[in-house]
Design goal:
heterotrimer; A alpha/beta (about 500); B alpha/beta (about 450); C alpha+beta (about 130); A: about 500 residues; alpha/beta; Aspartate Aminotransferase, domain 2; Aspartate Aminotransferase, domain 1; 3 domains; seven-stranded mixed β-sheet; four-stranded antiparallel β-sheet; about 35% helix; about 10% strand; B: about 450 residues; three-stranded antiparallel β-sheet; globular
């Protein structure tokens, strides 16, 4: 029985362009206190545009109604659990939103005089300190805009170090369980990618590693715990194997939510890692971004960090550009400051003690779910799970139902799907990460839903195969969307404007 | 800890279901040599009040209540109240990437509207769902051009934002893509002779910013003719989106890349912002980042979904168009709300006000460059240094323009000033006074 | 769907149909079934060259990209334009109208090593 949701009337809504009418406006500008100028005279006639054709013209309240109605068609963390593996969909604390909007912070211009930016710079410094402590690393850069951007920064630094030593080497090792950004990043830094097969426990095989780590290898990109939620127990030896051959270890920190306060990558041998502030550190996903990909490094890589770096001089912060070995900039200005404020607020709210407790709760939640679901779903690997657990759809596939179908049926139960078909090393993967901010009640409801669906698979597979049944739209035709992409609105001149 | 929704008794219940006594049992199997058994050297958790106060104090250590004439890639424009009303809705703020189309139609619909409006604004046919920012959109556009033309050299004007140029170099360093800079002429615009000289057959793209870093409009028509005659692609960049409310869009360009911070995205000391890449339909499969497409559901109802995902890293991995995963969805939404509120006429009126303000100030100052400009311009100081002028202005709680010495040593006696609808006449008069009082 | 007797097949699920020194190459019904709904096909232009064992293009479904490997060496004389308008033809008629390219063979003996229809069906039966 579906307990968490029931059917509800939602408002329909057209596109802004379909609500437009000439002359409607949602703004008023103050009167000019200087003389107006004639654009054509000042810019030249050829430089002045005609009107922006098709641009919306709507009133203030219609705009508000439009977006409010659209918002009601979205699922969100504020509504319920997102069991997405490696996404760490935890509560986005609202005090973070308030502090990020503090006027002196939100309106700070990156080029304003340094002595009038000390508050912003102190925030940078405080967050760098906290993240260095959490990761056990020697220095942190907050410049990268997202996880993949952080990966790019990290691999660039590795290359710079190896070039300084005389040989950048040729390839980067990536486990076959890795997130797609890992190999894509390595290619962008001019490295060939060599995939290493995981062993039957979903972990890195030391024998394989010994064999493939040659003098041509620049680095290994590793996720720990890995993408099946299992801790690489051999991590110290893995790092040694790489270091012995003069190579480095890049750690993808997407799964850091399993480690904060209980293990530090810097301690177990990682040379560089990125953190996803929008995962572990609670900054909001906002429908797909912004994020921030802080990168932490061991001492050996600090000379190569992106410029500028903070420097303390005469009791004040300064931006220091005198960094001869720096890889340069990976973006304009200093970093996604608005996101950094939120991450720092999160760390402050928890404190050292709270951060550790959060991690333990994340592990407890994931293992609790695993225990509830193991009778119905095939666990992918027997090894203990950390903050996420991975199942395969083997049992359900026997009835012709795959992980993607189960995920769609889960929507009818009022939940967002888990991560479907990733990692690729598990056949028909279901990757589930609850995070620590889910209550026991929500977890029990989720487990009930999954168990109920498993039953439906056996008794009434059509119900699952044709799901979801209760959403505003049914399954969207992604095939036609890819065959004949329509990525912008165009006016339709056949009769009525509304297209619904 | 107030964010953790479990009581100790519930923890005990759950542990019991696992046959455990304490949460420490959950990590007991971890080898001792990897465990961090100390306490993190971070202060105890703070109350909400203490957190708010901490940031209030930090904000107090920044400029407060200053008028500012800084532009240079980040602009002071008014943020309509409705922007935060909309993006603060939990369904937008705390939702995930819209991979599950049935429960993400809110995000998908608004991104489709965003993509459409960017096309209308830039004169292009397709636009993606945003890049990290304007600066990283440049190398992505360059890599697109390399893929499309199968050539490998990039020419970039010195009048493109200096930090954007630095970012391009960082990205292209290890991809076998040489980058060469193009000089600017006496009038501050791209030197067309230099362009002509350097346009060889191995050039994939020429990157030009308009209005350029000096605030001047570039001659896109001429530039595009030169560039296409050599079979290269023209990438037109903008950092001040408001200019597009009035300025003829660079529709001769093959790719448009730019920054939308002006559209209700707080300056926020440098980020987060939202970049875009827009191009022609024929290049749609080369565009990086997320794309939302229109389709139908099983009952024929219009619905949106992410599309052409096979360009992206999660499918193509090492052969992806880019490693980018995120898009700046929430910020793109801010821009969408902004564009909706101002609309067709409002964007134009806003641009006209910016034009009026900047030209009022500029006409009082010595200008080294003689070419049309929008809301930014370079002013020259023949006596005092720009730094001295700015120091005098600070005493009046005015932040002056950006002294150009750090980026253009040859313009050491100049500063870049920006005046928007937010700048008051009295402050502009004060700036002019400080300049002329040599 | 049946596998034409007069075609030859590869382990990478391509078929080859010889007509003198020119061959037509496509992907098998098994391959299109595994891929799901095809949304885009990337093919070389006429005049370009292909080499045995190397990729010459790719086939995309919504969620996957598959490289297509050339079983032979030679010059591409034609690419199937129909597929750019109607990629779904690869699903409905993979052995006929869904052909990918035609190649003028540089080394005609390369075909001899390929599987017969019977051998291929046995191969996919056990895969």
């Amino acid at each position: 029985m579906i307990k968490k949701v029931s059917k509800h009337i939602v408002q329909e809504e057209s596109l802004l362009f379909e609500l437009s009418s000439p002359g409607k406006r949602g703004y008023q500008l103050p009167e000019l206190d200087v003389p107006a100028v004639d654009p054509e005279k000042v810019l030249g006639k050829e430089n002045v545009r005609a009107e922006i054709e098709g641009f919306p013209e709507v009133s203030e309240f219609e705009t508000l109604r439009h977006f409010t109605r659209l918002s009601t068609w979205n699922y969100a963390i504020d509504l319920g659990l997102y069991p997405l593996g490696s996404c760490t969909m935890k509560y986005n604390p609202r005090v973070n939103e308030v502090v990020a909007r503090t006027e002196g912070l939100a309106w700070a211009h990156p080029y304003q005089p340094e002595h009038l930016s000390q508050g912003c710079m102190e925030v940078f410094a405080a967050l760098e300190r906290a993240l260095a402590e959490i990761t056990g690393m020697d220095a942190v850069t907050l410049q990268p805009a997202a996880g993949a951007h952080g990966e790019f920064t990290g691999i660039l630094m590795i290359r710079a170090l190896l070039e300084k030593r005389g040989n950048p080497r040729k390839k980067v090792l990536v486990p076959d369980s890795a997130h797609g950004t890992n190999p894509a990043t390595a290619t962008m830094v001019g490295y060939a990618v060599e995939n290493i097969k995981s062993n039957e426990r979903g972990m890195i095989d030391l024998n394989v590693l010994h064999r493939v780590v040659t003098d041509d290898v620049a680095a290994l990109m590793i996720t720990n715990p890995n993408t099946v939620g299992v801790f690489e127990g051999n991590i110290r030896e893995i790092c040694s194997i790489l270091h012995d051959k003069g190579a480095l270890v890049y750690m993808d920190g997407a799964n850091m939510n399993a480690l904060v306060g209980i293990a530090r990558p810097g301690d177990f041998g990682a040379d560089v890692m990125h953190l996803n502030l929008h995962k572990t550190f609670s900054t909001p996903h906002g429908g797909g971004g912004p994020g921030s990909g802080a990168v932490a490094v061991a001492k050996v890589l600090t000379p190569f960090l992106p410029a500028p770096r903070l420097k303390r001089e005469d009791n004040a912060w300064k931006w220091n550009y005198d960094l001869p070995d720096s890889i340069g900039r990976v973006r304009a200005f200093y970093g996604n400051f608005g996101v950094l404020v939120r991450a720092l607020a999160y760390i402050m709210a928890h404190g050292g003690n709270g951060l550790r407790q959060a991690t333990l709760d994340a592990l407890l939640n994931a293992n609790y779910l695993r225990a509830l679901l193991e009778p119905s779903y095939q666990i992918a690997y027997k090894a203990p799970s950390m903050h996420e657990c991975v199942f395969s759809d083997d049992r359900q596939a026997k009835h012709g139902v795959r992980t993607g179908d189960i995920a769609k049926r889960l929507i009818d139960y009022g939940f967002h799907p888990y991560t479907v078909s990733f990692p690729l090393i598990v056949r028909g993967a279901l990757m589930i990460e609850p995070t620590e901010t889910e209550s026991k009640r929500e977890l029990d409801l989720f487990a009930d839903a999954m168990i109920s669906i498993a039953q439906e698979v056996e008794e009434n597979p059509e119900l699952v195969l044709k799901a979801p049944h209760s959403t505003r739209t049914s399954r969207v035709d992604e095939v036609t969307a890819a065959r004949k992409p329509i990525v912008r609105w165009r006016p339709r001149f056949t009769g009525s404007q509304a297209a619904d | 800890m107030r964010y953790l929704p479990k009581s100790d008794s519930e923890r005990q219940e759950m542990l019991a279901a696992l046959g455990m006594q304490s949460e420490e049992d959950l990590i007991a199997y971890l080898p001792a040599e990897v465990r961090f058994d100390q306490r993190l050297a971070i202060e105890n958790g703070k109350s909400e009040y203490e957190i708010v106060d901490y940031f209030k104090q930090r904000a107090g250590e920044n400029a407060n209540g200053f008028a500012s004439f800084l532009g240079a890639g980040v602009y002071n424009h008014y943020r309509p109240v409705l922007v935060d009303t909309v993006v603060s809705r939990g369904e937008f703020l705390t939702s995930y990437t819209p991979y599950q189309a049935e429960i993400s139609q809110g995000t998908l619909t608004s991104i489709f509207e965003f993509q459409s409006m960017i096309c209308q604004l830039t004169g292009m046919e397709v636009a993606n769902a945003s890049m990290y920012d304007g600066s990283s959109a440049i190398p992505e556009a360059a890599m697109m051009a390399v893929r499309i033309t199968r050539r490998n050299k990039i020419l970039i004007a010195r009048t493109v934002h200096p930090e954007y140029r630095e970012v391009l170099r960082t990205y292209t360093r290890h991809q076998g893509i040489p980058v060469e800079e193009l000089a600017y002429a006496k009038n501050g615009r791209l030197d067309l002779d230099d362009l002509n000289k350097k346009l060889s057959d191995d050039v994939a793209a020429v990157i030009v910013q308009t209005p350029n870093f000096f605030g001047l409009l570039e001659q896109i028509e001429e530039i595009s003719r030169l560039v296409s005659s050599k079979g290269a692609l023209l990438v037109a960049v903008f950092t001040e989106a408001v200019a597009l409310g009035l300025m003829e869009p660079p529709k001769q360009a093959d790719i448009v890349a730019g920054e939308l911070q002006s559209f209700a995205i707080s300056p926020s000391y440098g980020g987060p912002y939202a970049g875009i890449i827009a191009t022609h339909e024929k290049y749609i499969r080369q565009i990086p980042g997320r794309l939302v497409g229109e389709s139908t559901d099983a009952s024929g109802r219009r619905a949106f979904c992410l599309t052409l995902a096979t360009r992206e890293q999660h499918i193509r991995r090492e052969r992806a168009t880019s490693n980018i995963c995120t898009n700046q969805a929430l910020l793109a939404l801010m821009a969408t709300v902004f564009m909706s509120l101002y609309g067709k006429e409002g964007l134009r009126e806003l641009a006209e006000q910016n034009l009026a303000k900047a030209h009022y100030l500029a006409q009082k100052l010595p200008l080294p460059f003689d070419a049309p400009f929008f809301n930014e311009f370079v002013a020259r100081s023949d006596g005092k240094s720009p730094e001295q002028i700015n120091a005098a202005l600070l005493d009046q709680k005015i932040i002056g323009g950006l002294p150009l010495a750090r980026f253009y040593p040859e313009l050491g006696n100049c500063m870049l000033l920006c005046a928007t609808e937010m700048n008051r006449r009295a402050d502009m008069d004060a700036v002019a006074h400080a300049f002329l009082k040599q | 769907m049946s596998y034409p007797e007069n075609y030859r097949y590869t382990r990478e699920h391509e078929w080859v149909h010889a007509d003198g020194s020119e061959v037509t190459i496509g992907i098998t019904d098994h391959a299109q079934h595994e891929l799901g709904d095809i949304v885009f096909v990337n093919l070389p232009t006429a005049g370009s060259n292909v080499k045995r064992g190397e990729t010459f293009g790719s086939v995309e479904s919504v969620k996957a990209v598959s490289d297509v490997y050339s079983p032979v060496t030679g010059e591409v004389t034609a690419a199937n334009d129909l597929l750019s308008q109607k990629p779904e033809t690869l699903n409905t008629d993979p052995h006929g109208d869904g052909w990918l390219i035609k190649v003028k063979l540089a080394a005609p003996e390369e075909i001899n090593g390929l599987m017969s229809a019977a051998d291929y069906q046995k191969y996919i039966g056990t895969e």
